Structures are given as structure tokens and as C-alpha cells.
## 1
Amino acid sequence: MIFYTSSVPKLRRFGAVAAVAAVVTGLGFAPVAHAAPSGATLPLGDAGLAESRSSQTLTRGVTLTRIVRGTDPAPADQINTTTRGPWVVNVLTIDPTATRGHLAATYGPDLAKVEKTTDLVRSAGALAGVNASFFTFTASAQYPGDPVGLGVFGGKLLSEPTGDPAEANLVVDARSNKVLVGQLRWTGTVQNTRTKVTLPLDFINHPPVVPAGCDGLAQPTQCTLPGDVVRFTPEFAEATPSGAGVEVVLDARGCVVRTSTTRGTTLSQGQTSLQATGRDSVAMLAVAKGCVKQTDALLDETGKKLRLHAGSFGVNGRYRLLAGGRIAVPAGSDSFFARNPRTIAGTTADGKIVLATIDGRMTTSVGTTMDETAAVAAALGLFDAINLDGGGSTAMSVEGSLVNQPSGGAERAVGDALVFVDSRFTGR
């Protein structure tokens, strides 16, 4: 699976997600011990390479810096090996103590569609932004924007963490611009309020898997193979996924509105649905009678439940770059760890938020390995940082214009974006 292309389906959650990658640490804001000195050059390529920097203030508390290291274009056959670069890095720095604006995450018309980062920034009325989460992309022609991991928008958990040890998450409080970085866990259940019969919830807003051999049965309840239980919200798409299985539509109180032995329906505002496949179809019919209680918890690495509110936003990445000021990238040798375009998000020791893009796969900017990406994050003074979706997805938009150069020659449509809006967050 090559995560930087975003071309993988959502990974299954492994039980209670007890295993946590050793490369990530707890969420927190402890002081940094290894911040890079102000004005340090990027630790890329040969020592003594020419490096230029230009900065501009976009608005109060927000600056955009462009760094170019190396001067001569790389030979096309040496992009992955050259020590001469060049590298082009764009860095957006937000100072919460000085800005009047806020950071948020946004997606397009619905969660399952894709939009260009520039369009997401514009539609959000934002000043600037970068692409964010890994998303289904080509693995699903119908739902390409489906996040592969955490997705929190305006306090709503619309996609759960995968449980993959490689997943790293960034959660922002738009009211204070405080950021948490780490690996989150999630648990969910569905319980009948009268009988107390309980069923585990596997996913949120992700098409369930129909076990092979079950989709041709006359009745979905005849399937004896394991399936999925998924909650859908109106934000997912114009209609919920169709196919074999069972679907129960609930009103805002959690009471059953209608039940169907096939999947696929349109949800009204305030409604949710529960889809089940495989042998979970039988269990769903038993649980979803009368009213049900849906319980889920988003947990940090200490097991503490995160309290979401209207100003809560969260996205997913792959691998922690820095944890507590120290390099946290594991060893790896596949194409994901090789030189590619990269998007970085993180915070400095004093709470500044940094969003950065590194152009790659071009003779004018060769990109960075995962190790080089972590080194760049450290050189930018970050304390905690994650690797967001990259490759052809890497994009930074400022004031309605793309400021980096996508590797594919044109901007790719993506699942969501982190955006800076130049006004105070007014939601509750």
C-alpha cells in the first residue's frame, strides 16, 4: 500500500485498537528541547548549497515564507539520488497570540467527493490552506473523498481513526488555535434502549464490505460470514451506499424511522442510518427495534476522551515526523519513504502553527524522503509534526492562488484541507 498516493481503501479497525505505534507519543504541549536555531538553513543535500528565503506577511500573525535550496535543475535520472537539489519549500506560519483568525478543516459539497485545495480554500472563505488527509482516491470511483482515517469537522466525528499504527492525527481547537498531535483511538457501540442488546460499531461514513458470496443471496440475513456495521450521516453523500445488507434509518432521538433489507437511501437533516452486512445483518435487525443508543468515544493516547465542540477539527496523516522535539519517523524502504512531494503540519514549542509543502518529483524540486521531511520539520523549529497526504495531492493555496507546483503538472482534487480563516471563530 502506497499511502502518499492516497490510493488505499480505509483500513479495518483492529478490535479495541490496543496496539499503538512505538514511534508516537502522547498528545501534549511540553516545552521543546531541540528546536532549530532561528534562520538555520535546511539540512538537505550538500553543505554550502545556496539557499534563498523570502517572506511576506499575509495578515496579522500569519506569514508565508518561500525557501529555495540549490540553484541548478536536477538531471531527470537523478531526482531520487542527487545531493544538489534543488528543493522548494513553502511555509505558512500562524501565531495564535497575534492573529485574529483561526485554523479549521473543510471538505467539499459532501464528505465523499473531492475538490481541489484551492477551491476548498475559496469556498471556506479562507486566506490560505493546504491539502490534508489521506483519502480513498482511486480505490473508490464512487466515493473518492472518503477519509482514510480521522475526520472531524465542526465538532462532528465524520470518520474514525483506522487503528493503523502508521496513522497520525492532528486536532485543532478553532476557538484557541491550540493543536494536539498524536495517534487517536476510537470505540463505538449500538445498543437497544429497551433490551440493552449491544452491537459493536465498526466504521463511520465508510461503505461496508459485503462478504464474497453473500451479495447474491435472496435475503441478507442468510449470510453467515462476518460483515460490517457502519453509521452514516447526511454529510457523507447524496445517498448512502447501496447493495446487499440491512439499513435502519434513525431520527434525531435514535428511534427507528424505517428498516430495509437492502442498503441505499437518502437521509434528511438530523437523521442517521446504520448499515450492516454479513451475519451482522441479523444482529442489526435484532438491535434496531424501537430506539437505539449510539455511543462512541474518541480517545487520546492516554485513554482520555476528547470532548468535541463546534470548534473542533481533525485530520489524518501517515507517521509522526516529530514527537516532543525529537525525530519520530520509523525505518522504511518502500516508495512511500523515498523522495516525494510532502505536506507537513505541526506546532512549535511556543504554540505557533506551521503548514508547509515541499515540491517534488521534478527537476526544479526533487522532494524529500521521510527522513529528510522530518529533518526539514525540525529545521523549521517544529516540536510536534505529522506527515499529511503528499505526492500529487501536495498543494498550498494563498489568497485564491496556488503557490506551489504540483508534481503532476496540475492541481489534484483531494478529500479535505486545513485552512486559515482571517476572522475569529464565532461558533459555540
## 2
Amino acid sequence: MDHYRGRDSALNEQVLWRLRGPYDHEAMTRAVAALTARHEPLRTTFPPGRRLRQRIHEPRPVPVPLTDVSAEPDPTAAARRIVATEVATGVDASVWPLRPLVLRIDPRHHLVVLTLHHYCSDDYSNALLARDLRALYAAETGEPADLPAPQWQYAQWARWQSEQLSGANLARLTEYWTGKLSGARLVKLPARRQRPVPDGEPPWISVEHYVDAETTAGLRQLARQHRTTLFPVTLAVFYALLHTETGADDLTVASLFANRTQPQVRDTVGFFASMVLLRERVTPGTTLSELIAQTRTTVMAAMRHQDLPHQLLPPDTVTGGTGRTDDVLFQLLGGLMTRADMAGEELDDMEAQLERRRFALEFVVVPQGDTLSALLLCSRADFDPAWADAFVRDYVSLVRRAVTDADVPLAELRAAPVT
């Protein structure tokens, strides 16, 4: 992504934390320094060169700028603009992988922003950093901090991974994925763009609709009936929607897995997330309930074989589309680890990060307490905003259909599109 899309996408991760009440900036500066001392990737640089190499630095103080926006006419809006600029501004990992910042919205309301290069963090790691920074700041202000020590640092895991991806184990993983994906074709949604993108419009479309609490509860119950989690259930509904949109009976989409099969990395920060291709075959008579069961099996098998980095698949394992294997990506955000900032105002803070340019079409389901949010991010050059809005609405309607009548065949969905 950095090589091919680096100029189109700031490959940044962000950790955001709102503090309300008394604030001690010197204590926060010490907490950030303690955070970098605790996690090696936050002090790892990658010198330029043909081969990517890591250089781990000794712990050292990290400047934490404090920007006061309290005098602005709308301090919250001003803070949001700064956060959006931060995530859109690249982090030079050859110099330092972490860029902290604190915004003062008023004397008793501060927003802590950690912007990190994607080389050194992922969604699971962001959750760890949010947890750790809270605890370390509390410790600096006199409260006890009870944090488990990371068993492995990222470099230890990288050596372990290198050893695993050789010999018989590499052959086993490669055999599984080539067998699973042989003959698969990328999902290619019909081009929906009817007119050129007007000047001044953002290059990406962002559409969000919500699944109500009653339907969400029914979806969780459906997952329990299938002895699985929300991820296979919400993915199965996405497959059903793709089937109604394209008429394709062989569907392959990308997703991101935590890739933390070793217990030693439970508290380790780093870029572990692994892209996997999830292939599902359907027939006109397949019901939503049967598709959920199939998807559960597919996801469980993929989890057992997620150790193989996607780029080590033999070339042309999957064909079609534009040649990229991540044109259509599905995620259940927050499913890897509970995020302390995944609610209310803090969830709104993530808008800038979610709108990063990463994939041609990214569909994200976000748990929000008792409800779900369905979010579509796609290229405005390829898709029309009206189509994008209808696509997400149809997904929400299909979720309701799955809860009320999971035995409906997909053929009926295709014959009578959900509205």
C-alpha cells in the first residue's frame, strides 16, 4: 500500500482520547515517554533502502505539543479539522514512527492524539495503546497502574514468523490457500458512475446507516444459534447483497484478521493484521441461514491458516477485477478487541481516520453499544453517491430479513431486490 498508493493515502493510524476534568501536561508527556519505552515499535525507524529494515532505538523523551483551540469560535470544530489534517499528513517512519499531540478545547476538556505510521500499529494495537496510555497517565498523576508486561516485543514475533514461514509449514499454508482460491475471481461490482466528479467534491464517498437495537439483538441471537460471532453473520449478509448486485455465484472478498495466534503477543504492539481472501459459493436455492453456516466454516478455516502473509500467495491465484485483490473489503471494526473509545463522541472522532483512502470499496460494520453502524467507503470516480446510499440501505434491510426470515432462498432476494 505504501509503494503503490502512498501518495493517495496517508498510511496512518490514530489513537484518540478525550480527557474531561483536570489535566497535567507534564504528566501526559511522561506517560507518552513511558508508552514508547514499553512498546519498541513506537521507537522503531525504517531507514530508506531497497529492503525494509527496522532500527530499534533506546527509550528517550518524546515532545508532546499542546495546541490551544479554546479561543476559536467553535473549538470542537477546530479540533476536528486538526485531527483530520493529522491523519492525512504522512508520518516519516525513517525519522520517527509516532507523532503525539494534545488539543485544549477548554481548560477541562482535552483531546490526546497519537498519530502512528501503519508499519508499527494496527486496530488491535491501537486498542492496546489506548488502554496503556490511560493507565500510564493515571500512574503519573498518582493512581496505580496495573498493566501486564508484553511477553514478546514485535521483533521477537517477526523472528518467530520468519521461522514459521519456511519448510513444511510454508508448504502446508500455501497448499491450503491455493486449493481454496484456485479458480476464484474477484468480485467486480458494476460501474455506477454516471458523470465526471465535479471539482471540489472529495474523491471518496462515505455513507453510513444504522441497524436498530432490536434487529441487532436478533442478529446476535442468530449468531448464537449458529454457534458463531457477529463477523460470519454480518459477512454472510454482505455475500447475499453482493449476489443480488452481481448475480455471481462464486464470491471472493478481502478482510483483515488480527493474526495473533500466539498468546505471547496478546499485549504486543505492532503491525500484525493479515489480509485474507474469503471465498464463498452459493446457488439460487441457498438460504441466508445456510449461507451463515457456510461462512462460519470458511471463516474458521481461514483463521487456522491466517499465518501466511497475503503477498506470499502464488501470483494469479485469484483473477479478475483490476488485478488487485483488495478491491472489495469487508470488516467488522472493533471485533478484534474492545475499544475504550468506541462510543458516542469518541466514535465521531474516528471519522477522519475511517475516510482514509485505502481500498476501492470498503464495507465496515461497527458495533455501537446495542446497535450497529453499516459504513461504506468507495471511490467517487467509480461509484455514484446515490448508488452507494442504496447499497448500504439494502444491506441494513437484508440484516432485518436475516433476523426475521433466515430461510429465504437467495433467488428470492435476487428476484425481488430489498428496498
## 3
Amino acid sequence: MSKVRLGIIGLGAQGGAYAGFIAEGKVPNMVIGAICDTDPEKKAVAAEKYPDVPFYDNYIDMLESGDVDAVVTCVPHYLHPEMGIEALKRDVHALVEKPAGVYTKQVRELNEFAATKPELTFGIMFNQRTNELYQKVKQIVDNGEIGKIRRTNWIITTWWRPQGYYDQSAWRATWEGEGGGVLVNQAPHQLDLLQWIAGMPKKVYSNVKYGYQRDIAVEDEVTALLDYGNGATGVFITATHDIMGTDRFEIHGDNGKIVVDDSKKVTIKRLRKPESEMSATMSMMDVAKIFMGGDTDDLYEEEVIEFESVWGAQHSAVMENFAANILDGTPLLAPGSDGINGVALANAIHLSSWLGKEVELPVDEDLYFDELQKKIEEEKLNPIKK
């Protein structure tokens, strides 16, 4: 096999974009093997754009057709684990979209089944992991350049969505159809990057607003306090109603600080001595000079790096890496098993707000599932979307 034949399940915005990337040659080690969608209109679209590509209206039929070596699941979140399992059952490699699922119980089932098929490639579309900026940040943290982490702070509110966005489909922004709001739709990449770079917190306490500025049942505003269990803390803020949104990620360590602005610029400040040593040895005269705006060159060095990002290149890079793993064993940038971590964080944030208290990770999976079912039943009795 020189190229992987990818089956695209769901020819919506994301699936359509992936088909375009492959057709345009942006994923050199991959071709479109087949397309599947339950919408008859998508069949006409596929016939016009990709006349030589087989089309299916049932994804099981596509998995069993022999037309595909792998699939990508561009479908509502609840279906990702089920489709991943069904593909792997039939010895078809699986690339699941983010998030890996809505709740960790179903994602764990996917991970456990995938573990029984080590010969198959199981990946997740965490395209931000291919972003050179975040790779650089992770490298700095992993290398210990800023020392032990003391605090993380990410405000990511660049997800402005008007009411019309939510009204365009009945399933969107519902507990039954989507399983949540900004935490499961827009912010999974940041939740993944946060734990990928800084590690998983041990406890979460959250203040979450449901339908705060939009006529929806799910969350459109989130503030979460993270406890890493070793003294370090974090704050994660996200929302979909800020038209002038902010994207700023700070990591403060014993020996320095990293600030990411707009996912484009990284400022690294490396202390010349650990903060604890400075605190123990500096005279108050030296401290006064700092407070009065004195020269800081003796305290820390500063490095600023700016990155350019081309939309679509990151998604193509994940697909190319996924195909390379199938073809020659190239290590995966985003193993599918990692998907459970971001889902666990989202579940913990939800559960803390539902219970009105701090929750420990990993969360009680059965409790989360039961509380989610309550939300679904409440939504059926009092639907916001008619």
C-alpha cells in the first residue's frame, strides 16, 4: 500500500473540508476511498465533486465494502466512539474527530477496544498538536526551562457564535444532540493542549452559565478553577458570546513564565535565578529598584517568537501523520487514546457546576452519565429549541 484509502463518514463542513484537502493533494499519502452520508442531498454533492468515489448511506456498508483502509468520523459527538469501535472491529483504521465522545464512559469503551487491536492505527483529530507554537511551548515545559509549574491561566473566548449559528440545526447546542456547548464543540482543542502541556488536574471547581447570552440549554460561559494536586493551580475561561474575544495562555513556573497571545506569539521569560532563591537572597534595596521600574536584565532574559498559521494545514498534517503511521509506523502526534483526557476535563467542569461543589478527577463515570440523562430529560420536557 502506497496510499491510504480514507472513508469519510459525514460530508458536512468538516468532512467536506477533508475531502477537499485530499482531492487537492494536500495529503500526499492519502486518497478518498469512499464517502458516506445519510443525507440524500450530500449524495448529489459527492457525485458532482467526486464522481469516481463510491458513496454509501450506511457507514457499516462502507466499512465492509473493501473500498477503505481507514475512516474519519465527521459526525455528532455521541457517535464517535461507536463508529470508532465498529471500524476497528472490521480491521479498518480509525481517526475520530474531536471530542472523542461526550462522556468518559463511552470513550473508555473505545480506548479499551482499540487496545485489543494494537496492529491498527487509532488517532484523533487534535490538529493543534501539529501547531509549531504549541509544540514549542510543550518542549520548553518538558525541558524544565521554566521549572516546576505553579499556575496556568487560559482565557479562550474567541468563539463568538450568534444565535443564528445555534438555530441552523435542531441537534446543535442540545444535551441530547450534542452533549454540551462550548466545552464539547469549540474548546476541546484547548482542553487537550492544556493537559498535554501542563498535565491533568486532580480537582476542578467551576462556575458555568447555561444559556447565559444565547437561547440554548447548554453552556455558553465557563470559568473553571483547576487544582493540580501539588500546590499548582489553574484557571480556564471560555465563552461563545464575546465578539471581541481573547486568546491568552499563561504558564508560570519556578524559573520563568510563558505567555501565548492569540495562538500566534510566544513570550518566554527565563529567570536567571529561581524565584525562591531571589526571594531568599535579594536585599530590599534591590527589590525597591524593581518596583521603581529598574532594569530587569539581571533578573530574566526574554525571548519572543512569532508563528504563522495557515488554515487547513494543521488538519492535513494530522491526516498525513495518521496515514504515515499506517504505512510505515511513524509515531502518532495525536493517539486516539489521548482523547479521553479532554473529555474527562469537560465532564469534571460540567459535573462540578451541576453538583455545586469541587469534584475530583477521574470523575465518577456513572454519576456523570446519570446527571447527563437528567439534563436530557429536562430538555425534552422543556425544550428551548422548538
## 4
Amino acid sequence: MKYRQKTWIASALLGTLAQTALAASYPVTTEQQSRAEQVAQKGVALADLAPNAPERHVVKAGDTLWGISSLFLTSPWRWPELWGMNKTQIANPHLIYPGQTLVLVRQDGRALLQVDGAAAPSGDERLAPRVRIADLPDNAIAAIPQHLIEPFLNEAVVLDGDEFAAAPRVVATQEGRVMVSQGETAYVRGLQSKADTYRLFRSGKPLRDPDTGTVLGYESAFVGTADVTRPAGQAQVDGSTLEVPATIRIRHIRQEVGVGDRLAPLPARQYSRYVPHHPDKRLDGRIISVYGDAITAGQNQIVALNRGSADGLSRGHVLSLWRAGRVVKDRTDERNDNLRLPDEAHGTLFVFQTFKRVAYALVISVQEPVSAGDRFSSPQ
């Protein structure tokens, strides 16, 4: 096993933590860099701690970075301040393991989070723990509950009209079958990718912007997965050269596969950890729909947003949900004027999948059911 020395800011004091070379580089905003540099030596102000922040917490299986941050801070997305990272470390956050004990140290009006048994920093002292560069270990805790979104990552397909028309398509099924199921054969035109395994999907519902009515994309229904067993080719028939479509074998189905269903390469497994962070610019928008058959969404459900990567939205962004203010009468005045109460933040979204003009987010917390048309914004 190989190890590599790295210098970490001492105030993080998270012990011997792992960092993967496969992890994606997360966007680091100017605001995050400034915050992290401010707290790297000092810690956070006591006023920023959660009211019931524990003095110590033993990391256990099932914990998440979001959950631990919620224990100690009033705003979980302010994770750089919790760990006291400098801007280099924000790009590839450390992984934390069950069994570690985190201790909250309060001194001089500030607070630092340390691993039990670690010595406090002094002056310009730095720690250089040994770091294993490897694949993401199975027992490292995730930023958010990974099991809630991982199945969705392979299933969610949002395409515009041109993309759907150009996607490889099933043109025939095995003889005698209108629809095919697991283990059966179908034939496909248009395969350009060299991938061996594909997702199958069917034209789905249009995702319309609640404000403009514009179709932002088409949420295509996941049908299943298939393996390519024979590539496309050509054949001579009665002196003519005819195309021979590729052959696929259905591996797994959510519903039976039929002529006209489209294909897309199966994405690589998502190894990267999703790290909560504040958008680097002001973002406002509305919820398009609740994923699945539900009309409203609660905690741990998935919603589609009318903003995507083209608008600056990216994986890991934290957003506030807003409840529209009610219209009430002023009964303290004889005129009985109608008044509109201000909107109130009542929940939190965590963006985990983005397309060009659409994104999907997990409802992390919410006080009331969430519906299409509800507003979201950058956290306050």
C-alpha cells in the first residue's frame, strides 16, 4: 500500500483521513475560500454553533457529513467552517470513518472541531498525516444519504427533442414477440458508442418551466438495461447491401421493452462524494414536478427544478425552499385591507444531478409538503 505526504491545515484535526484520486473536483467559490481562510486558524464563532451542539460525537455507520454538520452548526452547508479547511482542502474534502470521536473545543469565543486525542495547533504548526490514495472506501461516510439517490442516478434521463430523436432505438424484437422481457433479444439501430451496456428509456413527460411554459426537456421513463451481444454490420441480400442492426440482450427491466424505445450508455458508477456548498451566484427558480407519481413531496423525496448547468447550478448546491406568504385581511382597521404576508423559508434542497436546463434535488428537510410551482433560492 502506497502513502503520500500532504500538508493539511492543523485546525481541521480530523486525524488520518482518506482522500480519493478518483473524486471529482468540486466548485470552490470565492465566498467559501474567504470563509475557510478566516476560520482555518480561529475556528467558528460560538454564535454559529447549533443551540444544542454536543461536546463530542462518535461517528457511526449511517452518519453523513450533512448530519454531522447539522449537529454542530446552524447551517449544515457551511461545512468548510465546521472542518476549518483551507481552500486547497475544500476542493477534495476528507472522508470520515465510523469509530472516530469528534470533540468540540471552545476557547476565546471561538470553537474548533477536533478528533479525540489530537493536540491543539500552536503558531504556524501544521500536521502532515499519512493519506492513502485509493478508491472510495466502503466504510467512509457520505455527504448525504447515498442510498436515496444512487438508484436515481442510473435512471434519470432528460433529453431535448433533438437528442431524443437522435438516440439509438429498438427497431425489432425477437420473432413472435411484440414486447420483450429479461433475458430476451431485441435489435437496435444507431449505436455509435462502444459501450457494452445501455439504459433503455421511453419518451416521457415534458418538463415545463412554471413561469414561461417553455419545455425545458423531456423526462424519459426508465425501462431497463441491456447488453450488446452483437455489433451492427452489413449483409448482402439479393444483390443489395442491407444494414444489420446491433443485437442486445435485456439484462434488467422496470417494464417490458418494445419497438421505439431509446438507448443511452449506462453511466459509470458515481464514486464521488457529494459535498454541500453554497452556489457561487444568486439563484432563484421554481420546482417543475415531483419525481414519480406523487403530487407533493416530503423529506427524502426528489423534485425537478427549472434551472440547470446552463444557469450555474451544479451537484452539491444547497438551496432554500420557500412557502408563499398568505393573503390576509387587516381586521384592526375599518378598511379591512388585504395584505400579503412575506414568503418564509421552510425547507432545504440538495442538488445531486444536473442537466443543461433542468436539475434534480433531494428534499433534505421541509416543514410542509412541496408542490410544483414552489419557489427555491440560494440559501440565506
